[in-house]
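Question (not urgent): is this output format expected?
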Amino acid sequence: MTTPLSLHDALQHDEALKHVSLRQLASFVQLSKALKRDILLVQAAGQQEDQPPDFLSNGISGFLKDTCNLQSMGNVASLWALLKTLVWFEQPLGLYEPFQQHGHIHGICKLIITVTSIVP
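Got this back:
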């Protein structure tokens, strides 16, 4: 798994990725997580669901390039190689639990409402 230090080192040593911002990284991870099923859909039949694929399709790569404002498809490929394990295995950060556990003692209250459809 990519650790924060190895991520920083990789970004600093890759000329193409030196200027990728934290916002671009966060967007890349968030959007890639949201696209996991779409990423799997176009992979070879032998691709296991519990393992990140080595490559992204041109469609997914183009979408990530444009939405994350990356300079090239090569940037997307480099970021995917660096972050695919994080994208595939890290659980998304839930907002309810941190506020529930630590908010009140610090004077912070956050009401998080989950909307559920009652129509089947």
